[in-house]
Design brief:
Length: 532
């Protein structure tokens, strides 16, 4: 290992250790209430998920840092992710009752909406592990109006013949009562589940009627009298057993292709830690990342050709700041676009637009690997048509119908974030590395622009620009932009689906491609008008 690689590895390992510490905050968000919850003989949200999914299978937790940097606990009192249940990939949404009784805050709502989008786009059955006190009342103004979308998504999923299952472990009151009320299959835990529109105190205030939890909304009542429960579980373990049996009887089949045989990468994924420079202004070759993520050919070609390679690069001599080509990942065919030297120029934009069209022509998913400072600026580039060429690339990204996956490895600034399929362009999944930074521009550039504007403004007014006094402003702006560019900040705002260890990239993308295969993959050949 070279000294440069060693320093990069050390820096990345520090970032990964910090990431694990932040993720632990989500796991331990309930604090002392976790022990109190267990003393009542109840399982935590993650324990319920572990018992629900197939033994030995992976659970891809999504958005674990939602709410990071806010006044709410990291994780937003909700655990979401994709797990395999009786061989079926399912979206799992579990309330964390140890965090304010599982009450939903604005970040919980955003997180649940993103989970619903993923389930809808990829045709995943949804399993809700329900135990929540409802909305966080102090923030109800941010929850009430948009919150109704959650019920809409449940009914629309059912209309699309995509099943929804609700397992009720405790409180599911007020608006929360509609989660089981609108699910296709409902399981309630005896002497624990409480499902009603209004609890005994509110009923007394509203009608004068005196009642109790069990007769008003208990599991036995709903199983024997109201019919709102389909299965009465003896305890939490029994409820999860029943949920697995429900999924086993769904007669669920993938709609798309099955992955072919594949080889592990020819280069060691562990070496990804040596790849990213500590200074993101320093370029790195994305092919080094690609060959550690995609299927290798060391055990022989899947095409039967002796000259097969792991990554078939397209237009390698043209627009060399963007590397594009074809590969396989866990047996799934995929097209890859990766920034090679950060900046995107006209040639790179045109190359990308053509490549995206080709991927749509042959119904192949696309993977975008970000390390870009944006589109090139300057007189020569403007006269050369960088705007219209960048528009061609963004047009292709916007109207492409094949599934898109995005990983932000390093920088992702300005319109380059858009052209490389950032969050605004609805990738099926988007993950970031701990090294990632994303903003309208770099902190120094933005602060420098502000200084130039302030200097010119002072000169127009005939005033003397106070350069020394502006130093503090620049430092404040640089610090603010630096903080807001960091992956935790963006992940906290649910602008990605998670910050991941680079070494896990191949596994995470493999799970995502398998999930995508639940729906037919059909490309688009009508891209509207390309300005030529």
């Amino acid at each position: 290992m070279t000294a440069v690689a060693g320093s990069r590895r050390e820096a990345m390992l520090e970032k990964i250790a910090d990431l694990h510490a932040e993720q632990t905050k989500a796991v331990e968000a309930g604090g002392k209430y976790i022990a109190r919850h267990k003393e009542r003989g109840k399982l935590t949200a993650r324990e319920r998920i572990d018992l629900l999914i197939d033994e030995g299978s992976a659970f891809l937790e999504l958005m674990p840092l939602a709410g990071w940097g806010s006044d709410f606990a990291v994780g937003a009192s909700l655990v979401t992710g994709i797990g395999v249940v009786e061989g079926v990939e399912c979206m799992v949404v579990a309330n964390d009752p140890t965090v304010k009784g599982g009450a939903l805050n604005p970040w919980s709502v955003k997180k649940s909406f993103r989970a619903a989008d993923i389930a809808s786009q990829n045709g995943l059955p949804t399993i809700n592990l329900t135990e929540s006190g409802g909305a966080d009342l102090p923030t109800q103004k941010e929850i009430f109006i948009p919150g109704g979308r959650g019920f809409r998504e449940l009914t629309r999923a059912s209309a699309r013949k995509v099943p929804t299952v609700s397992v009720v472990f405790g409180n599911s009151t007020a608006g929360g009562a509609y989660v089981p009320g609108m699910s296709d299959y409902v399981i309630m835990v005896k002497e624990q589940a409480k499902v009603f529109l209004a609890g005994p105190p509110l009923v007394k205030m509203a009608t004068g009627e005196v009642t109790d939890d069990e007769s008003l909304g208990g599991a036995e009542m709903h199983s024997r009298i109201s019919g709102s429960s389909d299965y009465l579980a003896l305890d939490e373990h029994d409820a999860l057993r029943i949920a697995r049996r429900v999924v086993a009887r769904l007669n669920w089949r993938k709609a798309s292709y099955d992955a072919t045989a594949y080889a592990e990468p020819d280069l060691d994924p562990d070496d990804l830690l040596d790849l990213i420079p500590t200074d993101l202004k320093e370029p790195f070759d994305p092919r080094e990342a690609i060959l550690r993520i995609v299927d290798g050919v060391s055990t022989g070609s899947t095409t039967g050709q002796d000259n097969a390679v792991a990554f078939d690069e397209f237009k390698p001599l043209y627009g060399t700041s963007l590397c594009v080509g074809w590969a396989q990942l866990h047996g799934h065919p995929i097209g890859i676009l990766a920034n090679a030297r950060g900046v995107l120029m006209s040639e790179e934009a045109q190359k990308a637009a053509q490549f995206i069209q080709l991927a749509n022509q042959k119904d192949t998913p696309l993977l975008f690997l970000h390390n870009t400072t944006g589109y090139m600026v300057g007189k020569d580039y403007e006269q050369g048509g960088i705007i219209k060429h960048g528009a061609q690339m963004i047009n292709a990204v916007s109207n492409s119908k094949v599934p898109h996956l995005t990983v932000i490895m390093g920088a992702s600034y300005g319109a380059g974030n858009y052209g490389m399929n950032g969050r605004a362009y609805d990738p099926r999944f988007l993950f970031t590395w701990p090294s990632a930074k994303s903003a309208v521009m770099g902190p120094q550039q933005l602060a420098g622009v502000m200084e130039i504007v302030a200097r010119e403004s002072a000169e127009k007014k005939g005033q003397v620009f106070d350069a020394d006094g502006f130093v503090a402003v620049k430092e404040m702006v640089e610090g603010m932009i630096e903080e807001q560019s960091l992956p935790y900040f963006l992940s906290g705002m649910v602008y990605d689906d998670g910050v991941i260890d680079p070494r896990d990239t191949r596994t995470v993308l493999g799970i995502c491609l398998s999930v995508i295969a639940n729906q037919p993959i059909e490309g688009e050949m009508n891209f509207g008008v390309f300005r030529l």
